[in-house]
Amino acid sequence: MHLTHLECPRCGREHQADVLQNLCGCGSPLLARYDLAAVAATVAPEQFGLRPADLWRYRELLPVADPRCVTTLGEGWTPMWRAPAYGHEIGIADLIVKDEGLTPTGSFKARGASVGVSRARELGVERIAMPTNGNAGAAWATYAARAGMSATIAMPLAAPTICREECLAAGADLRLIDGLINDAGRDIAELIAGSDGRIFDAGTLREPYRLEGKKTMGYEIVEQLGWQVPDVIVYPTGGGVGLIGIHKALHELRELGWVEDRLPRLVAVQSTGCAPIVRAFAAGEDRVTPWTDARTVAFGITVPAPLGDELILSALRESAGTAIAVDDAEILTDLRDFAAREGLLLCPEGAACLTAARHLRAGGWIRPGERVVVLNTGAGLKYPGLVHSGAPG
């Protein structure tokens, strides 16, 4: 393992990586840092193709030293599907969908859970707790069970039913909250405060290693394109860990010398019913103002005030990217249109990225001939009824 330390991106303070850490004292999430020169001297890009087709193929760039602590269900190395029919319709000839719906537990959240649980296991954690919009809780409950840990998951009542059932099947202590994810977060904070350190806070960006699992999407996109970067990556953004992680991966790849200086423009996609990042980006602000009365059919991106707002906004601006909000009715229309043309049922968050790409191409932000990668972050089958539904009233 080449992990050296944890770094605060806000105040610059370094933290030890060999002890449990949550947020920096200044309130910022922490980022894992590696000896990338040592990684470059140890492994070459062509060697990854000889390894198993999962995210642990990138083990030199992940934070787990003891292979006995690796908790895995084969997550990662998801396919990249070309979408020529839908792409032709919207004017993006080179449109590619990275399909995270084929990951264990049915969403990209399994990546963060695998690495986060593995590192927590290595550092001696026995019980984790976290709030969730659904898929992350299902993933962390599943991987905690596999690692022999217990888990407490707080989830809004309105979250997809299948996520609730996944948590219960994994033996988690499930708390259903009449509210949004921030309300679930307050419930978990109270639980952890009264635990005398016996429960580890595994909430979004409250520990450093979920991000390390998510960043492997960035490594995979580049490797699957023959160690080339696309022009644009479109990502549905709630907590934003995946977008932050992809941005981190791209910078690590550039420092390793495995890609050229030109990096993709990142796009954060939100719903018009919950768009704090879009509003802050348009206003030139570094932090979001919490969104009131948040609601959208794309439940996974219903995050009124993401903890990683500074990191999301910084990633968008550093990459010359943008943030865009799309309407629920259009999300559902594009979900149906894409399935009819390409034969793949996306989750609503993934469909939101199609809507965003369509608008950005129509407005000229995405230029002719550019290669665009859209993230489908979960299986459409986890959202029964959406194909025949209209926008929520």
SS elements, strand count: 13
**Distance between the ends:** 51 Å
Secondary-structure element order, as H and E?
Answer: EEEHEHEHEHEHEHEHHEHEHHEHHE
Radius of gyration: 19 Å
* Broad structural category: alpha/beta
Order of strands side by side in the largest beta sheet? 4-5-13-10-11-12
- The geometry reads as globular
Which blocks of ≥5 consecutive residues have pLDDT under 50?
none
Beta content: 15-25%
Mean pLDDT comes to 96
Number of helices: 13
Main sheet, how many strands, which sense, barrel?
6 strands, mixed
The percent of residues in helical segments reads 25-40%
List the defining traits of the structure above.
4-stranded parallel β-sheet, 13 helices, 36% helix, Threonine synthase, globular, 6-stranded mixed β-sheet, single chain, 13 strands, alpha/beta, 393 residues
List the helices and strands and how they pair.
Elements: E1 3-7, E2 14-15, E3 31-34, H1 36-42, E4 80-82, H2 84-90, E5 94-99, H3 109-122, E6 127-131, H4 135-147, E7 150-156, H5 161-169, E8 173-177, H6 181-193, E9 200-201, H7 210-214, H8 216-224, E10 232-236, H9 241-256, E11 265-271, H10 276-283, H11 309-318, E12 322-326, H12 328-342, H13 348-362, E13 371-376
Parallel strand pairs: 5-13, 6-7, 6-9, 7-8, 10-11, 10-13, 11-12
Antiparallel strand pairs: 1-2, 1-3, 4-5
GO molecular function: threonine synthase activity
Domain Tryptophan synthase beta chain-like PALP: 72-378
Enzyme class: lyase
